[in-house]
Design goal:
Layout: H1 2-57, H2 67-97, H3 105-113, H4 117-146, H5 155-162, E1 173-175, H6 176-190, H7 198-210, E2 223-225, H8 226-229, H9 242-246, H10 250-257, E3 282-285, E4 294-297, E5 317-325, E6 336-349, E7 359-364, E8 370-374, E9 384-389, E10 399-406, E11 413-427
Helix pairs in contact: 1-2, 1-4, 2-4, 5-6, 6-7
């Protein structure tokens, strides 16, 4: 009798221990999905961006020495697909099991139909361990393909650098004429090998690169370093082609091919000579004192209120994340005028449950705030958001403040992880 009772008690104890263990696994899963899942997700999308960046560079004329490396990219992609599939399952788990403290009928059915929490936790940990070697492989692959060009900011100049021979790929500077040759080759490809005036195109490319020769040293030496090339800042106006970057027009090509066209009078004799230098769009990076991530959550307060913030979400908890000044010192010369400001932010919400509620607003000086974007995990999987301040709303000397808003609902929060801003300048006569 006593033995039967002990066996029964032991069986009950074992069942309770198993249940406690499974509940602990559920707690561990929730902790991972709430705290680590957003980090793992960002890592995956960073890997995806890295692959897309490499493919974009070699979309045309892949050097033969890199062909096998692209086969390796396919293998990496298969690994990422399997890991992404697991994360989708964990996202489903978080959505179903992470919303209520007590077990609902829906959650009970979910537990019955899906693997035990301990098995899910093991798969999750295995998946995360699989990510580490993939990151190392891709970092090595990207560096093997790009060499030192990985540090070049402008995509057109980066691609031209990568086209050099394998022996020069990891140099810190290369001859100016080598880059001219590769940029001209890229120009030919872009224009289906229809070049109106080869000599003029070569001269314009050479003149363009010569501007940067010597910017990082005392004298010009006929070689261009990565530091010097990074004085050429990428923008939406100059990053699609060599023609855009150098600002080559068909009209100029014809005028230089047929000089008599330029001799046709088009101004009065008493008009002053104009500057013959061709001014293009110019972007200047705006310094921002943003040292660490900023968070506002459901326990926070409203720092800025009506009438300076209006519309849906104006009553959310908020905090000023950072501010910057569009200084007149950014103006490259009196030949330019300010044409708006572009801002890039990395932002996330709590990473579970609902989304598309937390948002960011910008405020110019002490005016009414303007909603810039809402954090939506489903639409922006890389957590990167862009917005622009139109030229009619901003002027040199203005202060721009960025405010982040989060609902006061339990568990909600918003993180602003990083901020970059650039002032757009166009020729003053446009």
């Amino acid at each position: 009798m006593i033995t039967d009772t002990l066996n029964t008690l032991t069986t009950i104890y074992d069942c309770i221990s198993t249940a406690v263990s499974e509940f602990q696994c559920m707690k561990d899963i929730n902790e991972i999905t709430n705290k680590k899942f957003p980090i793992y997700e960002r890592i995956l999308y960073s890997l995806q961006e890295s692959i897309e960046r490499i493919i974009k560079i070699f979309k045309n004329k892949i050097p033969i020495r890199h062909t096998l490396k692209f086969d390796f990219l396919d293998i990496l992609q298969l690994k990422l697909d399997s890991i992404t599939g697991l994360l989708v399952m964990f996202k489903k788990w978080d959505k179903t099991m992470g919303l209520r403290k007590c077990c609902s009928f829906e959650q009970l059915i979910f537990l019955i139909r899906n693997p035990r929490p301990s098995n899910i936790l093991q798969q999750l940990e295995t998946a995360m361990n699989d990510i580490e070697p993939v990151i190392k492989d891709l970092i090595k692959l990207e560096y093997d393909i790009l060499g030192t060009a990985i540090d070049i900011e402008h995509p057109i100049l980066q691609k031209a650098w990568v086209m050099v021979g394998a022996n020069q790929l990891n140099e810190t500077d290369i001859p100016l004429h080598t880059l001219v040759e590769h940029l001209f080759s890229m120009y030919e490809t872009e224009n289906n090998y229809l070049v109106i005036n080869k000599e003029y195109i070569l001269k314009r490319i050479t003149d363009f690169l010569t501007i940067f020769d010597g910017m990082a040293s005392l004298v010009s030496d006929g070689r261009l370093s990565i530091v010097e090339l990074n004085y050429c800042k990428p923008s939406k106006y100059n990053s699609s082609s060599v023609k855009e970057m150098v600002n080559i027009t068909d009209k100029e090509q014809y005028e230089n091919l047929f000089p008599f066209i330029k001799d046709i009078p088009n101004k009065k004799e008493d008009e002053p000579e104009e500057d013959t230098f061709t001014y293009t769009h110019y972007d200047a990076e705006i310094p921002i004192d943003f040292k660490d991530r900023v968070c506002i959550d459901y326990t926070g307060h409203r720092t800025i209120k009506e009438p300076l913030c209006l519309g849906y979400g104006a009553d959310f908890n908020n905090v000023k994340a950072c501010e910057f000044i569009v200084s007149a010192d950014l103006l490259p010369s009196n030949k330019y005028q300010l044409y708006g400001v572009n801002v890039e932010c990395s932002a996330t919400d709590q990473g579970f449950g609902g989304t598309n509620q937390c948002h960011l607003r910008y405020q110019i000086n002490d005016e009414i705030t303007v909603k810039a974007f809402q954090v939506d995990r489903e639409l922006s999987r890389d957590n990167i958001y862009h917005f622009s301040i139109p030229p009619e709303d901003i002027k040199l000397g203005d202060t721009v403040k960025l405010w982040i808003f989060s609902p006061g609902w339990s568990g909600w929060c918003m993180w602003l992880n990083s901020v970059k801003a650039s002032a757009n300048f166009i020729p003053a006569n446009m």
